[in-house]
Amino acid sequence: MVAFTNNLKTAALLGGLFALVVFVGSYWGWQGMIIAGVFGVVMNFSVWFFSDKLAVASMSAKEVDAKSAPELVDMVQRLADRAGLPMPRVYVCPQQAPNAFATGRNPRHAAVAVTQGALQLLDRHELEGVIAHELAHIKNRDTLTSTIAGTVAGIFSMLAQMAFFFGGSSREGGHPLVGLLMIIGGAIGAALIKAMISRSREFVADADGAAIAGSPDGLASALRKLDSYSRRIPMDQPNPALNNLFIVEPAMSLGGDTLMRLFATHPPTERRVAALLGRR
């Protein structure tokens, strides 16, 4: 029921993003929207198509196999089989900050990565919960959902830049400043909706990951540990553009006020744990 509700919420939020495009587009004019849209789609399609390579490279991750990391690879294989997924590539990141992520444009081109810190911190039961969560993201094709949201948010960003440099409004008698404020407001709104979509997908991945693992207990325990330790051991030079990939948001380990949490790509860990344990 939780997964169904959050899937409906995701669909509604995506609809809201496109409604926002139409609303702002009615002020800016379709010519500018089409130009910005083409650039936004091309940019985000490229990111989606090469997402696995970009994410792995940014984390300096090294691919492992049955010889170099037999227990980890065996765990991923067993859980992938249980989830009905092809075996993803497996990586280990030389980061002491405990975290994990999944990436790839579809299940046949997917990768799962864990940091060295996570391998040292989590016990086998907890690590299974984390891997199952990441496999759920792959199974649910969350990278596609993120790309759609990112495309629309990218369009607004480009429109704001165009309005800043060229000004003007397509409406007769419209004031250029009003058009600029409309687009900036749309960009902020798009970023908020994008963050809300990401938070909804985390709840779904938690629920589906618990089902893959066979129990919510390991993931719930892992989330508590990862959240606590990530605050003490922040990610080295975290890239905010990759925040939505990780199982716990790296930027939050640096601390954040209410405004930061408004744009957070992950729900509060205590809410995730409560939702997981409520499924018993």
Short description, anyone?
It contains eleven helices and four strands; from the N terminus they run αααβαβββααααααα. The protein is of the alpha+beta class.
What features would you describe in this structure?
The protein is α+β, with helices and mostly antiparallel strands. It has one domain (2-277). Helices cover 66% and strands 7% of the residues. The chain has eleven helices and four strands. It has a four-stranded mixed beta sheet, with helices on both faces. A hairpin with a 5-residue loop joins β3 (100-104) and β4 (110-115). It is globular. The chain starts with a helix and ends with a helix. The mean pLDDT is 78.
**Mind summarizing the main beta sheet?**
4 strands, mixed
β-sheet strand percentage: 5-15%
Q: Could you say which structural class the secondary elements and strand pairing correspond to?
A: alpha+beta
Query: What is the number of helices?
Result: 11
Rg value = 20 Å
Taken from the alpha-carbon principal axes, the silhouette is: globular
* Range of helix content: 55-70%
Separation of termini? 13 Å
What count of structural domains?
A: 1
Total count of strands: 4
Mean pLDDT reading: 78
Low-pLDDT sequence parts: none
| SSE topology string | HHHEHEEEHHHHHHH
- Give the strand line-up of the largest sheet: 1-2-4-3
